[in-house]
Write a structure and sequence with these properties.
- The complex is a heterodimer.
- By secondary structure, chain A is mainly α.
- Chain A has 1 helix and no strands.
- Chain A has a domain at about 20-50.
- Chain A is about 80% helix and about 0% strand.
- By secondary structure, chain B is mainly α.
- Chain B has one domain (about 5-30, about 40-170, about 185-225).
- In chain B, helix 1 runs antiparallel to helix 6 (about 185-225), helix 3 (about 75-105) packs antiparallel against helix 4 (about 115-135) and helix 4 packs antiparallel against helix 5.
- The interface between A and B is medium-sized, with 31 and 36 residues.
Chain lengths: ~50, ~230
């Protein structure tokens, strides 16, 4: 078989995997950062509240 | 903010090192398949997706069962996190399989028993996550999803057996239908093991990050309740 035959499929398969993982990681990192900020804000609000 | 523990410090560089080794083996070292040519190299990443998918859904099954018995949020968090990752790797497994099928089977998809059961698996865990987000009562959603999570394990077993029980064009690669190995070359076997390990470590890393996000969500809910 020709060495370059169907090379585009090989590249597409690995690209799809990396793109999928990258999109998930980016979404998860954004979600975690937003939650960390929210925890900090809520703790600050709680600390300011008169007991 | 807590400082990263030992696993958090070790896991990312280990993942990167093993992933680079896997890519080197797949694209530089491994011999080209005599029948399929270079496109056969999709096999390594395709199999790696399924190892993570099966592990993730097995975790969902065990965590769901433990949640139904013990009712502790930890098991629910673990089940949900593993289901999310299982769905990700299942989607990528189906995608890489489809891309590989086109040049080899001359079609993107065929209703082969293993492929059909895998699509059903994808739907089961998509429904699991959908149930969670649509339920009015979070506890009710968690219980219904846990029941689905346990029943999904049956499909995992059927997928594993499909190529032996029914006529299938999907190959049984690791152990073929005659009981031998489908990978004759030792370097091909080594490449498969390293690639599967690399993506399995990615899965473990993402599972830790997803569980941390779940704990942060719990903290937000607790703080909101305290402020209310």
């Amino acid at each position: 078989m020709n060495e370059s035959a169907h090379l585009e499929y090989l590249i597409a398969a690995y690209a799809v995997v990396w793109l999928g993982v990258l999109i998930y990681v980016t979404g998860l990192a954004r979600r975690s950062s937003a939650l960390e900020r929210e925890v900090a804000e809520l703790r600050e609000l709680l600390a300011k509240r008169p007991r | 903010m807590r400082s990263p523990d030992l696993t958090d410090r070790i896991l990312p560089p280990a993942v990167i090192a093993i992933m680079l080794a896997a890519l080197y083996l797949v694209f530089v070292r491994v011999p080209t398949d005599a029948f399929q040519g270079p496109v056969q190299r999709i096999f390594y990443v395709h199999m790696a997706m399924w190892l993570s998918t099966f592990t993730a859904f097995a975790i969902v099954g065990v965590a769901s069962l433990l949640y139904l018995v013990k009712r502790t949020p930890h098991w629910d968090h673990l089940g949900r996190a593993a289901a999310e990752l299982g769905l990700l790797f299942c989607t990528l497994g189906l995608a890489t399989g489809s891309i590989w099928a086109k040049p080899i089977w001359n079609t993107w998809w065929t209703w082969d028993p293993r492929l059909t059961l895998t699509l059903i698996l994808w739907m089961i865990y998509a429904a699991y996550l959908l149930l969670r987000s649509l339920a009015n009562e979070p506890q009710q959603g968690a219980t219904l999803a846990a029941i689905l999570g346990v029943s999904g394990v049956v499909d995992l077993y059927l997928i594993n057996r499909a190529v032996y029980w029914w006529r299938s064009i999907h190959p049984a690669v690791i152990v073929d239908r005659q009981g031998g190995t489908g990978l004759a070359d030792p370097l091909m076997r080594a490449t498969l093991i390293v690639t599967m390990l690399a993506f399995f470590l990615v899965f473990l890393w993402l599972l830790r990050l997803r569980l941390r996000a779940a704990r942060l969500q719990d903290a937000v809910d607790d703080l909101r309740a305290e402020l209310a």
